[in-house]
Amino acid sequence: MTVLTDRQLAPRTEQATAVIETYELSKTYRTGFFMNQQIESLKKCSLQIFAGETFGLLGLNGAGKTTLLKSLLGIVRPTHGRSQILGSSIDDPEVRQRIGYLPENAYFYDYLTGWEVLEFTADLFQIPHKIRKQRIPALLDMVGLAQSAATGKKMRQYSKGMQQRIGMAQALINDPDIVFLDEPMSGLDPLGRKQMRDIILALSDNRKTVFFNSHILTEVEQICTRVGILSRGELIACGTLDELLTYSTGSYTVQGRSGSMDILQRWISDLEVDGDRWRGQLRGEPQEFLATMRLMEAELIEIRQGKMSLEDFFMQQMSIRGINSST
Ligand SMILES: Nc1ncnc2c1ncn2[C@@H]1O[C@H](COP(=O)(O)OP(=O)(O)OP(=O)(O)O)[C@@H](O)[C@H]1O
Ligand SMILES: [Mg+2]
Fold it and tell me: Tell me: the pLDDT tens digits for 137-176?
């Protein structure tokens, strides 16, 4: 008999190093003519992200994802709390050298070519010419823009998706240890999304840490090792997909052999029978079902806790809080 519950905790070791840490990070924007209106965009957000993780931050429009990312990067000043990257402040130039950033709405000089954008960024990072001569074509190739770059197309002639791709190449120009991506899939066609996904997976294979914001739950599900959900500025859930999706469902699938079909039909929905073997969805409590099985001398082959999809989990979390539209 095998009893599988899938309750595997994160494969994190004691030595895991937190490379991004926030403690009660909060941001209240002041707006209005007299700056007398307040928008609490981030509320006491405490988070740890470990080296080599691909962390996806989810949330509806206006949930505070960009605010959190910008607060981490020192682009906006938090009103409360603190954060560290690679054990230091983001103001530390050495830390800045080791991170890459793709903003939500990347802006480029219209008259530059893709190649020149990357040259310009390489200048800012003081990357030696010998290295950039190899890195720029490799990055252009990686984001699928080698051809556009070869024709000397200017940024004003780039489509939204092409700009997003060049933004990704720009974020990687310094071969960063941590990459922050704000909606990396935005504006991309299906092929572009797949390429972006493959780039993120390749970064992960190279032990880079990736922190990204997204709405596209299926993409997040495919590439993240851990996810966090922000709702109205609050981090309402955070964990590995196994932790979040397995614990949050009370459903079990069961498989077994022999026993009384009448009794099994009462306990199991979608019952499938093949000879003396059967399987289906358990209706009641597993412990009570196991006791019933012993009484009817049935053999249990497997009982497995069901998993929700990330989308179901996300919707459940929103509905628990009575949220049915973006703020
Ligand atoms: N500069 C600003 N001044 C005033 N309010 C702001 C500013 N930037 C963001 N906000 C507000 O803060 C809240 C969070 O915005 P933020 O951009 O962080 O959300 P988001 O989760 O990134 O949304 P989206 O998915 O649409 O990108 C929103 O209510 C927004 O209106
Ligand atoms: Mg945003």
Answer: 999 999 999 988 878 899 999 998 899 999 999 999 999 9
18-246 has CATH 3.30.420.310 classification: no
Q: Is 99 helix (H, G, I), strand (E, B) or coil?
A: strand
What pLDDT does 151 receive? 84
Q: Which atom of ligand 1 is nearest to the CA of 104?
A: 27
Tokens of 87: 């054990």
Tokens encoding 44: 């006491």
Spell out which residues have Cβ within 5 A of ligand 2, the ion.
65-66, 104
C-alpha of 128 from chain center: 33
pLDDT at 5: 30
Written as six digits, the tokens of 114 are 């893709």
Strand partners, 28: 40
Give yes or no for residue 67 CB within 6 A of ligand 1: yes
Kindly indicate whether the domain formed by 250-305 is annotated with CATH number 2.40.50: no
- Show me where the domains of the chain are located: 18-246, 250-305
Predicted TM-score (pTM) of the model is: 0.83
231 lines ligand 1 (CB under 6 A): no
Q: How far is the CA of 316 from the centre of ligand 1 (A)?
A: 23
**Ligand 1: does its nearest atom lie under 6 Å from the Cβ of 62?**
yes
Q: Compute the distance from residue 104 Cα to the ligand 1 centre, in Å.
A: 11
- Pairing outcome for strands 178-182 and 209-214: parallel
With a 6 A CB cut-off, is 28 part of the ligand 1 pocket? no
pLDDT in tens, 119-136: 999 999 999 999 999 999
Ligand 1 pocket, 229 CB below 6 A? no
Angle, helices 160-171 vs 114-124, to 10°: value is 30
Q: What is the largest CA-CA distance in the chain?
A: 79
